[in-house]
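Methods — Computational structure assignment.
A single polypeptide chain was analysed. Its primary sequence is given first, followed by the predicted tertiary structure written as structure tokens.
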Amino acid sequence: MKTTLALLALLSLAVGGSAVAQLEEEDIGFQDPAAEPQELMRRFEEASAVFASVDQPDSIALFTELIELLEAPGSADPATRQDLLTRSLFHRAEAQFNLGMTAEARTDLRRALEVVPDLEVDLAAISPKLADLFRSVRDETVGRLAPILDPPDAVLLVDGVPRRPREGAVDVLAGTHAVTVERPGYDPFQAEIEVQAGQRVPVTATLERTSAALTVMTRLPGAEVVVDGEPRGLTAVVEPESIEVEEGTEPAGETEEEVPAPGAASAPAVLTVDGLMPGDHVLEIRREGYRPYRGEVGIVDLVDYELAPIELIATRGTLTLASIPPAARVTVDGAEPEAAIEDGGLSVDLPVGRHEVVVEAGTVGSWSTSLDLEDQEVVDLAVELAPRVAVLGILGGDSAAASRLLDELRGTLGESGRWVVEDRSADAPAALAALGIDAVRLRGESAEGVEWLRAQELADRQFPASVYVLAVLSDDLFASSANLYLWSAAPGPARAEELLVQLGPPIELDGVRAAFEYTPAWRRPRLGGRWLLSPVDGRPVVVDVFGDGPFAAAGLQPGDRIVSLEGRATETLDALPAGSQTPCVVARGDAEVPTVLRPVDGPSIFAAESESVPAAVLSAWVTLGEALDRPPAWQVALNRAALAVRLDDWESVVLTLRGVEAPLGPGLGRAMVDYWLGTALLATDPAGYLTQARSMLERAAAVDGGRLFHDDGPEVAPRALARLEALDSR
């Protein structure tokens, strides 16, 4: 290694290997050991600046303090400490010499040479007298070893440290030195050689060839080389000039494009293996995170062999995601993959091992999973978003009750596994308080005037979730109950629903649990008719048969009693799944007729049929279904309208259903859209929208077999006609 040192821009030092022991890396008293190198350099620059000024004598004290630190154990890199020590000693020696302190200067020059025996000084750049002093000290301190090596590229080690001859020799401190000459494939030369100060001692070493040597190169350092099952070491980067690869040589082994590891070196990493005798040898190369390489090497003669760089292929697997909703953000191990989402799908190559995958869709919902990926494995996953519920806080001064309720809420809301629960109680209360939403207001009469629309906008922006839960304790000192306020994210209704919770003990959250355990069904089995339970024997009785549906296909008639299903007595037809084929026995008069029921599925407006479930929860499921593109747009609109009807928000019904295109015909579809739209127009402005409302109701009444809520639901036409008659009677 050769380092150029600037001394007053005049002195050039070249630092080679050192024959002295390295300084130990221990703490030297700095408060932050990691900052030690920067602090040492700062002190050196400060002393050097004084040295280069008219106050040069003052630099002696500064260099003395720095030298004491550098000669003490420390945590900085030994090479850095050695470099600064040599510079500091030479600076101090020159300053002392300029003050006539020749003995002190001689001591510092000797110490510098003891640290770096082959210290080179541009003698023409310093004063002639100082140059003479340096030559004198060097002749009194240092001798030279002049190696004559065969082969000439053998490595010379002095006291175990590799040394490169300069001008045919290496400088060493006077004394006895252990000299080793070695080269792979040869017996090493070893000797104890005494060197006198100022003496040049020749060292002749002729090595005897004993085996072949194989140089293995990999594109990445740290690869383990195994020959014939025996580990031989790790590849490491060496200086480029020591590696000669014939131009145009193809790499041995796999040539697929590698995925470099962090910190991978651009120069090949090398390991030379000796002790190989003629014959075939099995070569294996291993590195964690990469596929192992295996090949055979044929050794013919006891010569040097060299393999072209071997490419190691990173162990990788592939993760593919499907059903990613629009505008969703995907992260793998906390970072967004470079691959783009196309048509709701994503494919990424990942290293083997465990990975955390998260899909965030704002207020719509989120999904996460962990997977262990193996090499060349392809994992296909479908994203199944779950709606998110954010607990925005427990307001009130009874901290013990608030803590218990918060814990219970988090556990209860997450029990079903259908929701992703997020605790935002640390930061949300302050943000809500800025809107005037606090415990005092929610307990008082002014709670009715809370602007829930602003609360919805705030939560959607700062704490995005599908449903928001805010609780207020009944008392600040000893709370016995709490009111829970639930509202949905936009575009759901911006109105909070209230649930009363008794704090016990135990805390009663059955109502909350029931609300969040609900899972909607966008489709439901359709029988093509209506049935009731017989008051006589409790068996299902057919009331109506619609068109050519499953009842009609099974030959059922009004008045038929369903005696059994699959040979067992039954009291309901609700359990029949769509697509099933269920043998049944029908009692018709005095006869029993066997037949088969084949229910089919049809769309459902679940938001209108789930009166016990909070509108916020239903709205979350509607939004999620819309984002996943599961139901048709008209069915989503009808579900949103059903939520608005529940809250008597007829203006929202109009805005939601206006322009909706639904199937025209029997069953659920256009008839229900027109019926609700006409009803909403009348509720909004009976006089102003009379004409439009009448038109909608007339169109709904004209649909033969139009249904409300689902294909087997109540008929639309009689209800539409009843409203038209009411209009005519005004």
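Note: The radius of gyration is 44 Å.
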